[in-house]
Specification:
369 residues; mainly alpha; 68% helix; globular
């Protein structure tokens, strides 16, 4: 994969269904207390991503596989939109994603060229900053910024493929979910003659396609019809098996799910199954105004936070050095660099996050709570 593997409304309270999962209707069932559960999961996922890139320790990935969760949430929302209009669904997702990327490109691309980039690719490659069907090119110093764009690339492809994937899922539900897991190891061992960039895209899509399809299963009500005990048992087997594989087959860098796409895919599925099957009431969140506002803020600015957080973390170190943060000892310095990174990220979100409001056709606000 090209970068560290690190979205986005939740289990509805369905009417009682008597049909087995393979005879389930294709219409989404009524939603009552679902939005805030999915909002909470998305907020938790984006926080985990930021924390992992600040403190890249393996247990954060094990504790909460954020990317798998984000793709599952995206699949659920996409299924709902495709049922209304496939063309409008794809166009709407692109409209929400791309403006924030274009703003980032308007800053990063000129900076890369002005600061010197002698071996930059030919100009057609820069079009990937406008429509990221593969990871956009970047100079060496900008790789922490461009390296996380694999997520947007993968999300974009799953959005484009969603009308077809949804039809396939509704014809063969279990087979469709398991197919990416079967194809992923085959793709890794088979020769690929079309270059590393396209190979990386296919690997990422196969890694997270099953989570995306489980989002379809949630939206159609298939997961809700399964006994929770059975879902939990499958989850335990999946997560335990993935961890066991990584522990016994880890590389020199240690135990890290991100180093094994198949293990990460299986582990993510185990988590996603339980999270999508749950249907907790979120009264505790809505009764705490500050927590509720924080979840709203993180959801309204999720794309901006994801796109800019690595840039803020990277910039925190030279800025911290200028402020002599290192002079106070390792522990204080680490806290200082982290605080500077979060401060820079907050400034970016405050100044350019309103682009997400425009993309979603909302009234732009500096603080959307």
């Amino acid at each position: 994969m090209t970068a560290t593997r690190d979205g986005w409304v939740g289990p509805p309270r369905y009417h009682t269904a008597t049909a087995p999962p393979w005879q389930a209707t294709t219409q989404a069932l009524p939603t009552v207390d679902r939005d805030r559960w999915f909002d909470f999961l998305r907020a938790a996922a984006i926080l985990r991503v930021v924390l992992y890139h600040m403190f890249p320790v393996a247990w954060l990935g094990l504790g909460f596989p954020a990317m798998g969760v984000m793709f599952a949430l995206g699949g659920s929302l996409m299924a709902k939109s495709v049922d209304r209009s496939a063309t409008r669904a794809v166009r709407g997702r692109l409209r929400r994603l791309l403006p924030a990327l274009w703003l980032l490109a308007a800053v990063v691309v000129p900076a890369m060229l002005v600061l010197g980039w002698d071996d930059h690719p030919a100009w057609p490659a820069f079009l990937l900053w406008l429509l990221p069907i593969a990871e956009p090119p970047a100079s060496a110093w900008a790789e922490p910024v461009s390296g996380i764009l694999w997520y947007l690339v993968t999300y974009l492809w799953l959005v484009l493929l969603s009308p077809l994937l949804l039809r396939l899922y509704r014809r063969a539900r279990v087979v469709a979910v398991l197919a990416p897991l079967a194809l992923l190891p085959l793709f890794q061992v088979a020769p690929w003659p079309f270059g590393d960039r396209s190979a990386s895209v296919i690997e990422d899509v196969l890694t997270f396609a099953a989570c995306w399809l489980l989002g379809f299963a949630h939206r159609d009500g298939d997961l809700r019809r399964l006994p929770f005990g059975a879902v939990l048992a499958v989850s335990v087997v999946a997560t335990g098996g993935a961890v066991g594989w990584v522990v016994t087959h880890h590389g020199a860098a240690g135990v890290d799910l991100a180093d094994s796409p198949v293990a990460y895919a299986v582990y993510s599925i185990g988590f996603v199954l339980v999270l999508l099957r749950l249907a907790p009431r979120m009264d505790w969140l809505t009764s705490h105004r500050r927590a509720d506002a924080a979840v709203t803020l993180l959801n309204s600015r999720a794309v901006t936070i994801y796109l800019w957080h690595n840039a803020a973390i990277t910039a925190a170190f030279p800025l911290g050095d200028l402020l002599h943060v290192w002079a106070f000892g390792d522990t204080v310095a680490e806290v200082g660099y982290t605080a500077i990174g979060l401060w820079l990220l907050a400034l970016v979100v405050l100044h350019v996050g309103w682009v997400e409001d425009l993309a979603a056709r909302r009234r732009p606000r500096l603080v959307p709570v």
